[in-house]
Write a structure and sequence with these properties.
The protein is α+β, with helices and mostly antiparallel strands and 117 residues long.
Length: 117
């Protein structure tokens, strides 16, 4: 009789070894099309979900990481303006998961929070 612990142990080792290989890599060009699209997606989704009028301005910096199980994690600092507040801008820390080149409904906004200045 096989022990049920062995398959669980093997799965745990596989996850641990694959996550140890993943590393955040700095985005060298924040004006790259995919980075701009991910940032615009983050601002749009957050605004729609929280009934906030935000306008995308740009990306300050970012990092990418190959996600465990596929896809890419994007960690970006974006600038967005509040047109209803005289156009004041703020920086937001956001994290998005997606597969570049896939449909927009497969992308996920994981985090979007204002950076306190």
């Amino acid at each position: 009789m096989r022990s049920p612990v062995l398959p669980l142990l093997a799965a745990a080792l596989l996850v641990a070894s694959s996550s140890a290989q993943a590393a955040w890599v700095p985005v060298l060009d924040v004006n790259e099309l995919v980075i701009q699209q991910v940032a615009q997606f983050a601002v749009l989704v957050y605004g729609l979900a929280h009934h906030r009028d935000l306008a995308y301005v740009g990306v300050v910096r970012g990092q990418t990481e190959q996600a465990v199980g596929g896809g890419t994690n994007f960690r970006l600092v974006v600038v967005a303006a509040r047109p209803d507040d005289g156009g004041s801008t703020a920086q937001y820390d956001c994290q998005v998961w997606g597969v570049p080149g896939s449909r927009s409904d497969t992308w996920k906004l994981r985090r979007f929070r204002k950076i306190q200045s």
